[in-house]
User: Fold Cadherin domain-containing protein from Gasterosteus aculeatus aculeatus.
Amino acid sequence: MRRQVLLFFSVLFLSSALGQVSFSIPEEMAKGSLVGNIAHDLGLDVKRLQAGKARIHTGDSAEYVQLNKEKGLLIIKERIDREALCGQTTPCALHFQIALENPIEIFPITVEITDINDNAPVFEKAERRFEISETAVVGSKFMLEKAIDADIGQNGLQSYTLKPDDHFELKLHSQSDGGKKVEMILKKPLDREKQEFASLLLTAIDGGEPHRSGTMQIHINVLDANDNAPVFTKNVYKASVKENSPAGTLITKVSASDVDKGSNGEVTYVIGNSMRSISKLFQVTDDGLLILNGPIDYEKAKKYEIDIEAVDRGGLSDSSKIVIDVGDINDNNPVINMISFSHVIGEDILPNTVVAAMSVNDPDSEENGKVRCVIDKNIPFLITPTSSNFYSIVTDSKLDREVASKYNVTVTCSDEGVPSLSSSVNLTLQISDVNDNAPVFERSSYEAYIVENNTPGLSIFTVKARDADWNQNSRVSYILEDSSVNGVPVSSYVSVSADSGVIHAVRSFDYEQIKDFHFRVKAQDGGSPPLSSNVTPQTGRCLK
Assistant:
């Protein structure tokens, strides 16, 4: 038996980038604007981008940038609003990957979005009213509402002015969150008999070029008598709350005292933060209890800083801060994103070849966010981590389509929280055929009899071979091998049907001239190159 085998090997590689390509662009760039020459920065030929079907993979995030494969450029696809994208978080960046195929390569890309001065400081309320006793001492403090500027850095809120400034001046206190607490300080005693009402204009100014500003009108009604302001027992209150805590949960209690008597010594509490999100999530009662008012999510905010104000009946006030740490719970399943996947692979693929690449992310913290991925056992594939949050599925051993023509692979990723949460994805891998099996005859030899003086063209017997391969590789043809009988080519005696394997007599046989003879038939498949095997039928034994 002769057997020829030609194997073709195809390997996919997952590139592990040595460095990360980064760009920096301002927000609000027009559609079609150039981000950068990604082909140049990655050291790739544009033809590689086209042949590798280069594409941007962003996972669940929106696509703001698109790839021009013909020129190897990254360009703006959608207008980017840094404030909508990142809020106060800095730096603000888009993180995505450029994926190539044949071989598979993954390149992490970072595009930093820088701020422009496109937002003016804004007060939540257009005006604020105070009732202040004429006996208020110089140095009395009145907490003002902070303005909010969605921009950051130099473009963000920088200063305040107060006009007219005859009786009051501003004092700013830097806070750990980068903001400034604003207090209006009495610098000259009030006299109700001279001026019962006063209107001031508080202006918040940012540092952009040109400057932007916002204003709030302050109305003051001068009262008699109340000469002592409330005083908090602490400058900073600290508390913690789990992210799954229900509405109505008591977080902490604040307390301020006022040495005045009667109604002038009665203190109420209000939240001083101007951000609507704070007022929706928390409320403070008249007796200083801070209550959770809505759902909180650790993945959205890990800490809250709340300005709290104690106000007496005369309008005097003191301020303090409540710092709330949000505790994480395991409430997020790992998120699996397929970056690239080879749906069909050849059975001659080498072990350790990458057939799929994916990223896995769990937004929870610490153990709750640590993820481990596994795949089914007893299949010739392994899952291996390639870098932080990235995994590859590779072949673990040689494949044989004749044993299994496809595999259903289930990838399960579980976090280390208690209880653990998991996500799964199912992949179907089709195994394509290569010509690695020769035809095999049903018998090792055949023997037949024929009565002399037969009719030419008579069907004598049939040979049959089968090929385990598929489609064209398993299509069998039968060929009569060259040989001679008594010096005469065997083709003068018999023929074989290429498709059916039927052996026919070419001539009429004479027992007295030939009693038996041997010849060989080859079965050959339709592969490239073809594989074949032989069998030796013994025809003859001519009967008298």
